[in-house]
């Protein structure tokens, strides 16, 4: 964030504001952790702040301090719209295009609030007056830590803020194994632990709360895995019927796509998940090395994200989507076989 923007935001926050904080649709650990940490920070400064999520988030995140104060736009529509219409500042966290908030987009487009974006995804849109955008950052949570530090308030990070930030960094770095994890990331995490983030507690509550149904669904996903050795690629399909058989709950498929990359020699892993209610196939892409799943998702599947982690969607049936995906791999054979 440049000095001019830091000073401008600091000036805004020096006066009472009506603030709304918004993450992307289907918020993950980084989205929830970053919004909660910023909410705690702003409330502690005496600001009137409210988090509004586009839709519900996974149960394994519903333990973080303050999560019970989060408003759901789908379920509390009129209240949410009123708060957005009254807002003087809107923080958008962990996304950089208003299309990522689904049915909230028209409401935000009509807002007269000052927008502040904090995000680490590629190709940001220009809707925000003040942008802190850095694609090299490990997570939006690390960026929120930096944002608070930019404002001279690093010493005001509380244990509640610390564990929210820790959780987001932990989840978005794959427990600190992704290449976006830098020495600075580890220094931030160490400081958060010193400030009260219970790291073992965060890990257990996120990763060690499986249900039998989720483990059975994982078994189904792994049984469905197709390995394409010619392209160093593995993909998984999950149909709506399979999700229903194992009592799918939001968040149950989190991390399934990563299993493909645990196979020796695999550099590209994908999962295709049927969503009959929305009439789409949701897709997650992961890669190792320099193969950009961000570019792949943008070009072929109406998506995007990071170089090694991205999402997308398809409007054709599951079987046809997988077949289309396989047909594309010939074009990328050289990149996938370095």
UniProtKB/TrEMBL annotation:
Gene3D superfamilies reported for this sequence: 3.10.310.30, inorganic pyrophosphatase (n-terminal core)
Residues of the DDH domain: 18-169
Domain of life: Bacteria
Coiled-coil regions listed: none
An MF annotation (GO) of this entry: nucleic acid binding
Domain DHHA1 intervals: 250-331
Entry protein name: Bifunctional oligoribonuclease/PAP phosphatase NrnA
Organism of origin: Maribacter luteus
């Amino acid at each position: 964030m440049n000095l001019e923007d830091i000073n401008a935001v600091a000036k805004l926050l020096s006066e009472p504001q009506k603030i709304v904080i918004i993450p992307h649709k289907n918020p993950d650990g980084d989205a929830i952790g970053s919004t909660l940490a910023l909410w705690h920070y702003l409330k502690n400064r005496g600001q009137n702040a409210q988090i509004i999520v586009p839709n519900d988030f996974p149960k394994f995140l519903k333990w973080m301090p303050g999560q019970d104060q989060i408003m759901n736009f789908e379920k509390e529509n009129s209240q949410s719209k009123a708060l957005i219409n009254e807002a003087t500042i809107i923080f958008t966290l962990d996304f950089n295009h208003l299309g990522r908030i689904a049915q909230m987009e028209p409401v935000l487009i009509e807002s007269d609030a000052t927008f502040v974006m904090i995000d680490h995804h590629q190709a940001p849109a220009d809707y925000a007056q003040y942008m802190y955008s850095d694609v090299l950052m490990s997570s939006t949570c690390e960026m929120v830590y930096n944002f608070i530090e930019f404002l001279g308030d690093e010493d005001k990070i509380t244990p509640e803020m610390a564990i929210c930030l820790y959780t987001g960094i932990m989840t978005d770095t794959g427990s600190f194994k992704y290449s976006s994890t830098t020495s600075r990331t580890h220094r931030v995490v160490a400081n958060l632990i010193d400030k009260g983030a219970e790291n073992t507690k965060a890990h257990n509550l996120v990763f060690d709360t499986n249900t039998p149904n989720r483990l059975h669904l994982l078994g189904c996903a792994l049984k469905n895995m197709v390995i394409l050795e010619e392209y160093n690629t593995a993909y998984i399909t999950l149909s709506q019927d399979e999700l229903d058989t194992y009592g799918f709950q939001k968040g149950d498929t989190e991390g399934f796509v990563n299993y493909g990359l645990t196979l020796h020699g695999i550099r590209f892993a994908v999962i295709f998940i049927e969503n009959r209610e929305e009439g789409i196939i949701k897709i997650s892409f992961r890669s190792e090395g320099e193969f950009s799943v961000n570019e792949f998702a943008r070009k072929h599947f109406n998506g995007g994200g990071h170089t090694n982690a991205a999402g997308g969607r398809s409007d054709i049936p599951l079987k046809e989507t997988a077949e289309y995906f396989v047909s594309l791999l010939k074009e990328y054979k050289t990149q996938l076989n370095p």
